[in-house]
Structures are given as C-alpha cells and as structure tokens.
Amino acid sequence: MSLSRLIIHHFRNLHAVDLELSSGFNFLVGENGSGKTSLLEAIFYLGHGRSFKSHISNRIIHYDHDQFTLFGKISEEKHDWSVGLKKTRQGDTVLKINGEDGKKISDLAHLLPMQVITPEGLTLLNGGPSYRRAFLDWGLFHQYSEFYHYWANLKRLLKQRNAALAQVRHYGELKVWDMELAKLAQVVSQMRGEYAEALRPEIEKTCQFFLPELEISVSFHQGWEKGADYSDILAQGFERDRGVGYTMIGPQKADFRFKANGLPVEDVLSRGQLKLLMCALRLAQGEHLVAQKQRQCLFLIDDFASELDPTKRALLAQRLRQSGSQVFVTAITEDQLQQMQWQEQHGDKLFTVQQGNISPLIK
Ligand SMILES: Nc1ncnc2c1ncn2[C@@H]1O[C@H](COP(=O)(O)OP(=O)(O)OP(=O)(O)O)[C@@H](O)[C@H]1O
Ligand SMILES: [Mg+2]
Fold first, then answer.
1. Is-contact 112 46, C-beta < 8 A?
2. Nearest CA residue ID for atom 31, ligand 1
C-alpha cells in the first residue's frame, strides 16, 4: 500500500502542490521554512484528520485563504482508492472516501497506518508515560478492530467517574459504575500487556541492529499493582480520589518503559542513541503490523540527518529499505541524504522544496 498521488491546496505555505510519489523512498530537500515539515504534516492530516503539530486547524489554513484541501490516491496491490479532505475556517470538515460524501474522521482510522519520526518525537523516550501509551495503543488500534471501542469507552467512563467524584458522598453511589470501569480496564490492560509482550522480540532484534553496544530491555506497567483486582483499587482509593478530584490509579497511568543496560534510557543515552532507539521502536512496530496483518505503514521522517552520524544514517536507510515501506524523508541539503543510497532504478524520487513549491528532480 502506498500514497501514489498527493494534491494539496492552501495548507500552510503549500499553495498548490500536485505530486506523483514513489512507493519506495521520497526525499524532500529544502531550506529552513520552505515547507518540508508541512508536506509531512499534510500526509499525516490525510490519514488522521488532524495534525501532529497543531490542534488548531485555523493555524494550518494558509493565512490568505478560507480553507485547505487535501487529496490522496492510495494504491494497493489489487485496487486504488482515494481520500479527499477539506477544512474551512468556520471549522467544517468535508471528508470523501472513494468519492463518497459524508464520511466521518473515524472512518479514516484504519486506512493509512503511519509512523512519524520527528526531532520532537523523542518524547516517546524522555517525555511522560502518555507518549508510550499512545505508542502501544497505536499498534493495538491497527491490529485489533475492537480495541478502539474498548479504549474509547474506558476513556469515557474515567471522565464520568472524575466528574462524579465531586458529587458523591459515599462509595456505594459509585460502586456500580466502578464495576463496569474495572472490567474495561482489565480488558484494555490485558490487550496492552499481550501486545507489549508480542512486540518485545521484534524490538530487541531491531535494537540489536541499531544499538548493538547496548542491552535494551522493555517492560509494561499496567498502571496499578500487578495481580491486584482493579475494582478493589478503586474502592480503596475512593476517599483519596474524592479529595484530589480525579482517579489517581489505573490504566490511564500505564507505561511501557525502556532501559539500557538496566538504567532508564532517558538518563543514559546520547541524543543520537535516543533517536536511533526511537527509530528502532517505530520500525519494529511497523514490521510487527506487517507480520500480523500484512499491512504496510508509511514512514514520515522529518529532519532525517539530525543527530545521526553517516554510519547510523546508512543503517537506518538500510533497515527502511528492507521493510519495503513507503518512506518520506526530509533534509536541508542533498548531501545529508548521501548515505541513503538513492536507487533510481527502484523508483526513488527526489523533490526540491522552495517557498512552498515542490518539484521533482528525479522522476
Ligand atoms: N498558516 C500558514 N499560512 C502560511 N504559511 C504558514 C502557515 N503556517 C506556517 N507557515 C509557514 O510555512 C513555512 C513552512 O514551514 P515548515 O515547517 O514546513 O518548513 P520546513 O521546510 O520544515 O523548515 P525547517 O527546515 O526549518 O524545519 C514556514 O515559513 C512557516 O512560517
Ligand atoms: Mg521542518
């Protein structure tokens, strides 16, 4: 599966872009502020109905325009399909899939799995647990169609519980709801735990490839004491939760932690090593999806060269090639891409980005 054509209008500084893309590597080269990240952001928007940079869509629409539009043609082995998305300053969204109107953003969800690797993405390793929960949930979401339903209900029940904590006086008033919450928490945590376990060998193998000098270990924490019944935890914590006004313990605190030689990675790894580890995790997860569901995901890699020495750049390129995925890579200068070994014969494409205009150099 690959994005074979992309048309963009008035998305940040990208006024009118129409690209035929490679199903392998697409390199985007341009100066600061030329529009490289915006192109990756547009692809991400097409797949998620939201940005990875800003929650406010009015900031994404070109300053002089009232709406942006995106169109993508996706080619799969046996057929092509298309997605069109329009967002207006009034906040309206129009989504078409295969030309059919009236689609919801949630209809996009499973269509275009993507992995984003940006300098800001290091929060996966040095940010709070929410980034790592999102990482696990991404995999579950693409692998199990029922996961989203459990996850969304769990989120809703937790929100309702937090609101109810301000109103109830006795635990008896919450108990029935907590039983339902506990059941869902158990299901989501079990799925997360099993997925983390299934991913572990894939992660270890990929880390060995990128960071053979380190022994990386991973561990999943469900958010409450292992083996304990979550409904007991809720009952025991009622007075405390009522005092603070929210549920302190539970699946909303789950984490997936990484250690290098037994120490937390964020404390001991260099910036380059952190970046490689992030790439390893995202590649491992992408490959796991292929293995489980025969579904390829796209890789969006912003500022590919930063933090990596030439040898590591070549390693990353080699591993991405092996994965057979469609890859978008940005860089400021062409020479930063040298280690990525362009392969024109394999249909790689190089685009130059200048003040919002994108043109192919290698067709
Ligand atoms: N809503 C908008 N309308 C028009 N231009 C915008 C809008 N939002 C951002 N820009 C501009 O779009 C340009 C493209 O930014 P982008 O982040 O894509 O650049 P880049 O090529 O990734 O640069 P860098 O190498 O510095 O990361 C910037 O000049 C930015 O100021
Ligand atoms: Mg950028």
1. yes
2. 33
